[in-house]
Amino acid sequence: MALTSAERSRRWRERQKQDPEKHQKYLQKEKQRYQERKKVGKLKNVEELSEREKRAVRKQWRKNQQNKRKKDKETKNLLSSNTPPNSPCQDLAHEEAPLDGRTSRGRKKIRKDRSKAYREINKLRVKLAQKEKDVARYKKRFYRERVKNKNLDSPRTKTNTLIRGQKVSDEVKRTLNFHHSLVKGIREKYRLSVDRRNKELFINVLTSKLLRKYRLKKYTARAFGYSRKRVTLDHEENIKTRQGLFKRDRTRVDELQTSVRFFLQRDDNSRTAAGKKDSITRNKVKKQKRFLNDDLKNLHDKFLSEFPNLKLSYSLFCRFRPFWVLKATEKDRETCLCIKHENLQYQVDKLKGLGLISTTNFNALAAEVCCETESKACMYRECVQCKDKQVEILDGDLGKQVTWKKWASRRVEKVKRVQGEDVKYVTSLTMREDESGSVMCLVGEFQENLKKNCRHFFNIKHQYIALRTLRQNMTESELTGLSWKLVMEKALRMDSAGQ
């Protein structure tokens, strides 16, 4: 086995130390090298370093000392744990002689003085910690006062400070005085303004394209004392959003938000978390979590198809999403995945990656092979016109060998221990496997699975619509509760997954 660089260096040093003459030459050479490096300035004494470099060096010294003490302590513990106890004869031989009275009194006095010193050290440590807190507090107060009084200088003083030692014309001096006077006046008015609209008006007046062009947005915010968080968009987009959202009819905005919230909280678009701790609180408003059943982009397309009269952008749709409606993660899933959905999703993702289909949305794919997705005959593949339709496959190499994921049930032999004996049994286990084949084979399986899943998609959608209709038509005499609601939702999801 080849030696490492450190091992080769260590062996070289050991061989060199065996020859005193060579070792002496090596030490002399290293000494000359050290003096040359020090003369050039690569090595400096501590007194030659800056304050920042001194702090860094001393910090490294402290770290090295800590590591050394830790290593010595570990070595000491290792030796003490591995050292066998002395034999009885040896203990008798080395038994200490009894102490006389004067020695005992001296030892007692030493222990007493040492205890007193430790108590005094502990008291001083507490005082030192308190003083350090006071120093930090006063230092922070001084810093705040210095920042607060930084803008108390008059515009003329700021101008003179800025041009000190420089020869400038009167026009430049007047321009600087005008700049500082204008900035101080606007900053003071902005600080004294308590109305949010007035502050927004100040910001709208100050922001412009020129500030972005010359990279002065941050400088402007610091000069006038407003937070850049208030300016979340560019000036033009900010004005456009405010005119489009806040100045339009408020009733229409409320209607849009209500429609989006109702749509996202429907059982076919999201599901309720059943756990007692599955809640979320914002601004002291506590709500039970709901997890989306699909991507927000697909839900936005579905919303526009169901409400064609409502013109709503994707960004505004996402903004109107309630804070308790969240995207589900793997840990938030309470039921098993639907094998039909997952296998079809793997095939769709693979075909999309190969560039053979244009979308991965199941609804869009079902619409390609059906006359009408709302029709039972079309989705059950009983329609005469569309029962033989297939998804259009784009041009590609259909003979290429590819690999994709697939969930499959397999009979597996396992062993369990019963009354101290190993008993073998066979059980069914669902596992994810790698399926291999040509692109033509993958396309054939995809077309067949999509044909079968159209019926599956229609059943799920119909079940959610039926459940929503029943709940909307309930009378006051009918009793319902949260537990009934959760049981029905779970049963519906399990029924959909088991089809």
TrEMBL record:
Q: Where is the region Disordered?
A: 1-115
- Give me the stretches of Basic and acidic residues compositional bias: 15-54, 92-103
Q: Where is the composition biased (Basic residues)?
A: 55-71, 104-114
Protein name listed in UniProt:
Uncharacterized protein PFB0145c-like
Which species is this record about?
Answer: Crassostrea virginica
